[in-house]
Write a structure and sequence with these properties.
- This protein has about 750 residues and is mostly helical.
- Among the domains are: about 585-670, Serine Threonine Protein Phosphatase 5, Tetratricopeptide repeat (Alpha Horseshoe); about 670-743, Alpha Horseshoe (Serine Threonine Protein Phosphatase 5, Tetratricopeptide repeat), CATH 1.25.40.10.
- About 75% of the residues lie in helices and about 0% in strands.
- The protein contains 34 helices and no strands.
- It has helices at about 5-20, 40-60, 70-90, 95-100, 105-125, 130-160, 180-200, 205-225, 230-250, 255-275, 280-285, 285-295, 295-300, 305-315, 320-325, 330-340, 355-385, 390-410, 415-430, 450-490, 500-505, 510-530, 535-555, 560-570, 575-590, 595-605, 610-625, 630-640, 645-650, 660-670, 675-685, 690-705, 710-720, 725-740.
- It is globular and about 100 Å long.
- The mean pLDDT is about 90.
């Protein structure tokens, strides 16, 4: 095979790999932990590693494969380098580099996205501008086909043919998350409209019509995700396109500009009417419209973003270093834990993202990281309007980037949206007239010696580096993931759990996997030790947990999460000494989080002589957020348990229903104050005489009080009210009469 044929063959393989990328969103790795995330990430990394290695070989053979020296190329490169520096000097540099199974991001993903951009644009642009444009259009068509399949999957979920994975009615298809599905549809709506305009300009009206139909279909699916930020971005992007076309489209037909102006006016009018009727029943009954109707400044302030956005900004600017280069990727959890606001008691307790892409990059890379990210959008807009695209096509891409930017204000990014963003940046970059990077250009006429060096030194080095990357970045991590799944299957199935299986997964020594393996080990050990398994098995889990908790603390010494999980584990198995030291450290790292306070108070309540400490903690938790029902009930319960019932009545007696809570009743039962238990259940029955379980609980209280006649009276009353439960009630009566109930 001559050199030309070898180059063509390499190009064909690289193109095959690139054209696989649009189908990655369809892949769900059911055999892996976090199947909607990990499988897609591994496939993307492996494919890009193959393509990038081939591109390196191609660039050694043909100068036309050198990347263009555009400002977008250098900005993406600068962004990648800045984030690398931020990750390297961040709070946890290893986690910043490698991420975890839940996210599969970190710098390793940014590096792969940079490699994707370089290889994609260089290979597509190797055969000249006209061929490059045709290749891009083929690629967009393939991506639209893949998006169509995903959208049909979403339609099946809407129709009830397929299950929604989030356990709600919000469409997620093979993405596994409604927000991920939303941004995937968002970008493809604009790409589809762009391709429709391309075919219309080429006089292919029938093809053009189908593209616009697909765009409408994608818009419907986007609406069904009920992702408010993305829908706002979509509406804003469409309005921007119409406004640009109406105001600046002087070279377009008067009719089309009038239509654009009319549609824009209609959208504005619809928005006004929607706002004025936001409380109407037809809006509130529709999940998507209802969610859109709740958007307000007040809503933002009371929801999670109202707390975590200020956290992100304040923490970033607390010193010069973090203001410049941030904390590194995957480290927002440190900010969240350290600055936890007790008012968030009814929100997610382990935020690892600021839920805004822009703020996430501010936290991860400081001002340098955020500005380098924003610069990508600025350059995208500039390059769009400098390109040779038609006016309408320029408007569409302007709307695309604007819509994506609005989406990014409210939602954190994911691999698929990253890929699509870098793809669209690549297209805009390819439309520039920049020349190739000079020092990467290889002369056409290479000497025989240079060819020998190329083929027998450089190419083998590239292949070896590729194989090493493939093995250490992907294969070993996949093996650790699969071993974790095996260990978990033994813990949750009918087989006997095995600590050795978790140890085997940990032996892979993969940072991406280790924390998740340890957390799942603790979860499994909780069930094993609290069950009837043999002591040797319990001991094997206990010993491994003890070792791995210490190892995780070495890996993440300032992360409250491991201290909480381990402290709760030791509390559950009644090793209160170990639990106390871990939970005290957790409280030091996250001093205001009520869930930590509750757990530590529980430890103190079970430790002789520490009841006062428990009471002080529960008082602290209550006073930090009096509206938190759990902390209020917990405080009342602790007051009663520590002999301070009068104080509890003084503070909370104005609301007698609080003392009818099952948790308070259980406290009275624990103190053997059965008359109060009986009074409480009688009051509950009076409030809801249709609840059969209350009669059972009341009868049990009488039995514990050694009042058999009282128990029988309650059960006979229940028999009259609930004849459908005759068999069970008569059996309970028999047990009371024979003295078996309550033994």
């Amino acid at each position: 095979m001559n050199n030309t044929n070898i180059t063509k063959a390499l190009r064909s393989v690289a193109l095959l790999g690139i054209f696989i990328i649009p189908f990655i969103p369809l892949y769900v790795a059911n055999g892996l932990f976090f199947p909607f995330i990990t499988g897609k990430a591994f496939i993307f990394r492996i494919v890009i590693e193959i393509v990038f290695a081939i591109w390196l070989i191609l660039i050694l053979r043909d100068r036309s494969y050198a990347p263009k020296s555009s400002k977008i190329f250098w900005s993406i490169t600068a962004f990648t380098v800045i984030i690398f520096i931020a990750d390297l000097f961040g709070l946890n540099s290893i986690r910043s580099m490698w991420s975890n199974f839940e996210r599969m991001e970190g710098w390793v993903t940014i590096a792969h996205l940079w490699a994707y951009f370089v290889a994609l644009t260089s290979i597509f642009g190797a055969n000249g501008e006209s061929e490059s444009r045709r290749t891009w259009h083929r690629f967009f068509n393939v991506s639209i086909i893949a998006a169509g399949i995903v959208a049909v999957y979403g339609l099946f979920q809407i129709l009830g043919i397929a299950d929604v994975h989030q356990g709600s009615t919000r469409v997620d298809a093979s993405l596994g998350n409604a927000a991920y599905m939303a941004v995937y549809m968002l970008i493809h709506i604009f790409l589809t409209v762009y391709m429709g305009i391309v075919h219309r300009n080429n006089k292919n009206k029938s093809f053009s019509t189908w593209y616009f139909i697909f765009a409408i279909f994608f818009s419907f699916i986007l609406f069904e995700t009920a992702t408010r930020g993305t829908i706002l971005g979509f509406i804003g992007g469409i309005m921007l396109i119409l406004a640009l076309y109406s105001v600046f489209g002087k070279g377009e037909t008067k009719k089309s500009r009038i239509i654009s102006t009319s549609i824009l006016a209609l959208i504005i009018l619809t928005g006004v009417l929607f706002y004025l009727n936001r409380d109407a029943s037809f809006i509130q009954k529709n999940e998507t419209l209802g969610r859109l109707a709740t958007i307000s400044i007040r809503d933002t302030k009371t929801q999670a973003r109202g707390y975590i956005w200020p956290m992100a900004v304040d923490a970033t600017f607390q010193n010069t270093k973090t203001a410049l280069i941030g904390y590194g990727q995957e480290n927002f959890n440190y900010i969240f834990n350290g600055n936890y606001n007790p008012k968030m008691w009814n929100q997610e307790q382990w935020f690892d993202r600021a839920h805004s892409v822009f703020l996430d990059w501010l936290v991860a890379g400081g001002l340098l990281g955020l500005l380098s990210y924003i610069l990508l959008f600025v350059l995208a807009f500039i390059y769009v309007w400098k390109s040779s695209l038609t006016f309408g096509e320029k408007c569409v891409f302007t709307g695309l980037f604007a819509a994506y930017a609005v989406h990014n204000i409210f939602v954190f990014d994911n691999l698929i949206s990253y890929i699509l963003f870098f793809t669209t940046l690549g297209f805009v970059h390819s439309e520039s007239s920049a020349s190739s990077i000079r020092f990467l250009q290889i002369g056409d006429n290479q000497s025989e010696n240079k060819i020998i060096v190329r083929d027998y030194i450089y190419v083998p080095i590239i292949i070896l580096l590729f194989l090493a990357t493939l093995y250490f970045v992907n294969i070993r991590v996949i093996q650790a993931n699969k071993r974790l799944i095996t260990a978990m299957s033994y813990c949750s199935g009918n087989a006997t759990p095995s600590a050795d299986l978790y140890a085997r997964a940990l032996k892979m020594d993969q940072y991406t996997a280790k924390q998740e393996i340890r957390e799942q080990l603790i979860n499994c050990a909780n069930g094993v030790i609290s069950s009837g398994y043999p002591e040797p098995l319990k001991n094997s889990f206990y010993n491994l947990v003890k070792i791995e908790v210490e190892n995780q603390i070495k890996d993440t010494p300032n992360d409250a999460r491991i201290y909480v999980l381990a402290g709760s584990f030791y509390n559950n198995i009644r090793d209160f000494t170990s639990a106390e030291s871990l939970l005290l450290k957790a409280k030091e790292l996250s001093p205001k989080k009520q869930s930590i306070i509750f757990e530590l108070a529980s430890v103190y309540m079970n430790t002789p002589g520490k009841e006062k400490e428990a009471l002080a903690l529960m008082k602290e938790a209550y006073e930090s957020a009096p509206e938190n029902g759990t902390s209020k009930i917990g405080y009342i319960a602790t007051l009663i348990l520590t002999g301070n019932e009068k104080e509890a009545l003084t503070l909370f007696g104005s609301d007698p229903d609080l003392f009818l809570d099952e948790r308070i009743i259980s406290v009275y039962a624990r103190l053997k104050e059965y008359n109060k238990v009986i009074n409480a259940y009688e009051a509950l029955i009076k409030k809801d005489p249709t609840k059969i379980t209350l009669y059972g609980s009341l009868a049990t209280a009488y039995v514990l009080k050694r009042d058999r006649e009282g128990a029988l009276h309650v059960l006979r009353e229940a028999l009259k009210k609930f004849p459908e439960a005759k068999t069970q009630i008569e059996e309970a009566i028999k047990q009371v009469e024979t003295g078996k109930l309550g033994e």
